[in-house]
TrEMBL record:
<keyword id="KW-1133">Transmembrane helix</keyword>
<dbReference type="GO" id="GO:0046872">
    <property type="term" value="F:metal ion binding"/>
</dbReference>
<dbReference type="InterPro" id="IPR005907">
    <property type="entry name" value="G1P_thy_trans_s"/>
</dbReference>
<keyword id="KW-0472">Membrane</keyword>
<keyword id="KW-0460">Magnesium</keyword>
<dbReference type="InterPro" id="IPR029044">
    <property type="entry name" value="Nucleotide-diphossugar_trans"/>
</dbReference>
<feature type="transmembrane region" description="Helical">
    <location>
        <begin position="46"/>
        <end position="66"/>
    </location>
</feature>
<feature type="domain" description="Nucleotidyl transferase">
    <location>
        <begin position="15"/>
        <end position="249"/>
    </location>
</feature>
<dbReference type="GO" id="GO:0008879">
    <property type="term" value="F:glucose-1-phosphate thymidylyltransferase activity"/>
</dbReference>
<comment type="function">
    <text>Catalyzes the formation of dTDP-glucose, from dTTP and glucose 1-phosphate, as well as its pyrophosphorolysis.</text>
</comment>
<keyword id="KW-0812">Transmembrane</keyword>
<dbReference type="InterPro" id="IPR005835">
    <property type="entry name" value="NTP_transferase_dom"/>
</dbReference>
<keyword id="KW-0548">Nucleotidyltransferase</keyword>
<keyword id="KW-0479">Metal-binding</keyword>
<comment type="similarity">
    <text>Belongs to the glucose-1-phosphate thymidylyltransferase family.</text>
</comment>
<protein>
    <recommendedName>
        <fullName>Glucose-1-phosphate thymidylyltransferase</fullName>
        <ecNumber>2.7.7.24</ecNumber>
    </recommendedName>
</protein>
<dbReference type="Pfam" id="PF00483">
    <property type="entry name" value="NTP_transferase"/>
</dbReference>
Length: 306
């Protein structure tokens, strides 16, 4: 297969990490024999959705972090990324010691570059979402996002002033100071590695991502971007939210005839691969509607504003 050279696509350097670890205990017995991020969300494995977000961001070098038991399955599913014009690497998280641990596990992968982190159970969708997040991939400091939710106590919560600047960040507060939850998508400059290395574990014994964001807040280098009503954010940590996400994807795809989280389509639209390569990928799924969809995509105009 011939893919477009990643160096011809990007003027700036940012790498991506998908944290796909944990035991998924809230989804037992589904996750006793498989990683939560391998569970299907309608017609694709869950990990396709966060991976497609990083690819839409212009990121082609991705580190997937998971448990020693689950990593071989991710490698079998995704390979080395070359077929998509990307580079995928893998690292173990033997124990779930917090989201921020991803940066110490991935320190050698990150090197001197900036880095995006996305949680493996997050799904984003909205008109223009791709072009919107691409505007945030060269941060001087940190860029995080805020989404209005009805139950903010389940998440990290950011309090904003009247100008949209962060005042405080709390992790799963009993009495939230706002309804703005922080979705599992973060963009950082290279300082994040040093910050993650030095933060102390919380009372739960974990290195919290909120501690990193609070450090950037204290340094005056944290930017918060608020999702508008046209952007949907779903997580899939419970049976109900997993079912809701699958229904959401099914309804959108059947209504529009366009797929959400199709990594081959994103690779094509982002010029990671060319048309002949996309058609070769479609042959892998020759007996499914997924392959038919990719063959159709190969003959549509390329539109990257996804």
């Amino acid at each position: 297969m011939v893919a477009v050279d990643p160096k011809q696509r990007m003027g700036r350097k940012m790498k991506g990490i998908i944290l796909a670890g944990g035991s998924g205990s809230r989804l037992h017995p589904l996750t006793i024999g498989m990683s939560k991020q391998m569970i299907p969300v309608f017609d694709k494995p869950m990990i396709y959705y966060p991976l497609s977000v990083l690819m839409l961001s212009g990121i082609s070098e991705v580190l997937i972090i998971s448990t020693p038991v689950d990593l071989p399955n991710f490698e079998r599913l995704l390979g080395d990324g070359a077929a998509l014009g990307c580079s995928f690497r893998y690292a173990e998280q033997p124990e779930p010691k917090g989201v921020a641990q991803a940066f110490t596990i991935g320190e050698s992968f990150i090197g001197s570059d900036k880095v995006a982190l996305i949680l493996g159970d997050n799904l984003f969708y909205g008109s223009g979402f791709g072009s919107w997040i691409r505007r945030n991939t060269d941060p001087d400091g940190a860029v995080i996002f805020a989404a209005w939710v009805s139950a903010p106590e389940r998440y990290g919560v950011v309090e904003l002033d009247c100008q949209g600047k962060a005042i405080s960040i709390e992790e799963k507060p009993v009495k939230p100071k706002s309804n703005y939850a922080i979705p599992g998508l973060y963009f950082y400059d290279n300082q994040v590695v040093e910050i993650a290395r030095n933060i102390k574990p919380s009372a739960r014994g974990e290195r919290e991502i909120s501690a990193i964001n609070n450090e950037y807040l204290d340094r005056g280098s944290l930017t918060v971007k608020v999702f508008n009503r046209g952007i949907a954010w779903l997580d899939t940590g419970t049976f109900a939210s997993l079912s809701e996400a699958s229904t959401f994807v099914r309804v959108i795809e059947e209504r529009q005839g366009l797929k959400i989280g199709c990594i081959e389509e994103v690779a094509y639209y982002m010029n990671y691969i060319d048309q002949p390569t996309l058609l070769e990928l479609a042959e892998r799924y020759s007996n499914s509607g997924y392959g038919d969809y990719l063959r159709n995509v190969a003959h549509w105009p390329r539109i990257t504003d996804n």
